[in-house]
Amino acid sequence: MELFELGIDHERNLLPKDGIVNYYGKLLNIKQAEYYFDKLLKNTKWRHDTAVIFGKKIITKRKVAWYGDKPFEYTYSKITKQAQSWTKDLLELKTMVESKTGETFNSCLLNLYHSGSEGMSWHSDDEKDLQENGAIASLSLGADRFFVFKHKGTKETVRLYLTSGSLLVMKGSTQAHWLHQLPVTKKVSTPRINLTFRTIVN
Ligand SMILES: O=C(O)CCC(=O)C(=O)O
Ligand SMILES: [Fe+2]
């Protein structure tokens, strides 16, 4: 564990109200994070993400992949995707995330941001296929990036810095009351992979 990680209290709620966000700091050390980053970059079936916005189908620069216990169908941004079965690397990471958080997950969405010019705009992970108020665990690998929450009512924001190997958990009523985004930035030119472990209920 690195010195600056010693002060991290993963039981502290980073949101002032209406949800729970816990930051665990580094789940993986730098060597492990590099190892899994390289393996996932190479071995994942990456596809450009598609979304329907104002009735138009758009293709994002960001790439995604979807894995799970079963070939779950999962709909978000009005497009239905089918989960692929777990790889050895993903199962190892899932086990580490589960034992750290005490939660269980049956699926994982992976996002690949090739550089800081790619991000994800304001949204909540509140699709009907997801367990309501279920925990979502977010593991980051590669470039360090800011991550921001915005309250749907008051518009107050909470900004975090997600470093390589770090683990963040969103739970309780977070998705009902808060949006989140990964802002684009000119300061980052290297890639980042994010894994969000989730529970699908169909
Ligand atoms: O890349 C991230 O840190 C967040 C990704 C995200 O919010 C999502 O996949 O729903
Ligand atoms: Fe999200």
Order of helices and strands: EHEEEEEHEEEEEEHEE
In terms of quaternary structure, the protein is single chain
Helical proportion, percent range: 10-25%
> What would the CATH topology be?
Jelly Rolls
Helix vs. strand class? alpha+beta
Mean pLDDT: 93
Largest sheet: 8 strands, mixed
* Strand segment count: 14
Low-pLDDT windows of residues? none
Looking at the overall shape, the CATH architecture is Sandwich
Count of the separate structural domains: 1
Count the helices. How many?
3
What ligands can be seen in this structure? 2-oxoglutaric acid, fe (ii) ion
Which CATH class is shown?
A: Mainly Beta
Domain Fe2OG dioxygenase: 104-201
GO molecular function: dioxygenase activity
InterPro entries: AlkB-like (IPR027450), AlkB-like_sf (IPR037151), ALKBH3 (IPR032854), Oxoglu/Fe-dep_dioxygenase_dom (IPR005123)
Keywords: Dioxygenase, Oxidoreductase
Summarize the structure in words:
With about 200 residues, the chain is of the alpha+beta class. The protein has one domain: Alpha-ketoglutarate-dependent dioxygenase AlkB-like (Jelly Rolls, Sandwich). The protein is about 15% helix and about 45% strand. The protein is built from three helices and 14 strands. The chain has helices at about 30-45, 90-100, 175, and strands spanning about 20-25, 45-55, 55-70, 75, 80, 85, 105-115, 120-125, 135-140, 145-150, 155-160, 165-170, 180, 190-200. The strands form three sheets. Strands 1, 2, 3, 6, 7, 9, 12 and 14 form an eight-stranded mixed beta sheet that branches. The protein has a four-stranded antiparallel beta sheet with strand order 8-13-10-11. It is globular, with a radius of gyration of 16 Å. The mean pLDDT is about 95. The structure holds 2-oxoglutaric acid and fe (ii) ion. 2-oxoglutaric acid binds near residues 111, 138, 194 and 196. 2-oxoglutaric acid (AKG) binds near residues 111, 120 and 162. GO terms for molecular function: dioxygenase activity. Keywords: Dioxygenase, Oxidoreductase. It comes from Snuella lapsa. This is Alpha-ketoglutarate-dependent dioxygenase AlkB. It holds the Pfam family 2OG-FeII_Oxy_2.
